[in-house]
Request: fold
Amino acid sequence: MREKKIPLILDGDPGHDDAIAWMLAKASPEFEIKAVTSVSGNQTIEKTTYNALRICTLLGIDAPVAMGLPHGLLSEPFDAPSVHGQSGLDGPKLPEPAMELSPLRAPELMAKVLRESEDKVTIVSTGAQTNVAALLLAHPELKEKIERISIMGGGLTHGNWTPAAEFNILVDPEAADIVFKSGVELYMAGLDVTEKALLFPEDFENIRKAGNQVAGVVADWLDFFYQFHRSLGYPGAPLHDPCAVAVLLHPEIFTIEDYYVEIETAGEYSRGATVADMRGFEGPVPNAHCLMGVDREAFAKLLTEAVKAYEGRRVEI
Ligand code: BDR
Ligand code: CA
Reply:
């Protein structure tokens, strides 16, 4: 008998790698996607929400989609057109949304899902932590309904947007601080692992070979995402966000170390840094399972196999 599915909320600022993370989630029978929520980050909240609706239409995710907050809890909006383009998801043409946006805002839709779910719900958060923090602040009683939060964010040894800070944490450090102090079980896929989760042009072609519509779009997204990273000297496309989904399916392909991680919310040079106590002394109890390494081949295979689940699916573009 098949085990019960893991109820999932997908929260992100799509974004090419967010979209590929959602592709993996939808392709995996282990999950039941209960809601999709957008957050501001890669682009404005209007653009990331529109992208979320278009991705759900492409992939056949039929869960409610809700718009998140237009900026961080205490910070001004950010964007990253150099990475994801002006639309936040430049590259291949996508379908127009086939579904309506939920009338609820993201933290309220999350709260509704948690309240109504018989089982604890896992949140996969691949953008800033704004919505998750707003949920925890507004509905502390629902914390116990969260099984775990799997985050793409941070980096224990370095940043990417500044020398100290990774983009998602820098967009809303106060929100990340609330989440890391929440006591909820956290998986942190930071740059430590995600810059090793590289897909190379030959992987893109293997994905394209699956021959279905989603596989073609994913291969084109990878091409686009790689152009920017190649200009920075990366040998492949770092698939940051899919790590946050993959670890829920196959923790054995990752090297995971537990640390107490704090978020720098002040700091002249280090705002948004994830500071881990790696000294090995008796210290605070770890609050995060930190992904540090990955079997790259197994990770690439997981994504290459996942696109095959979309065989026979075709929407009008
Ligand atoms: C993170 O920033 C975004 O551009 C990506 O989608 C990923 O979530 C990597 O720093
Ligand atoms: Ca993202």
About this structure: The CA atoms of residues 65 and 101 lie 6 Å apart. The chain has a mean pLDDT of 96. Residues 12-13, 15, 17-18, 126-127, 241 surround calcium ion (ligand 2) (CB under 6 Å). The chain has twelve helices and twelve strands.
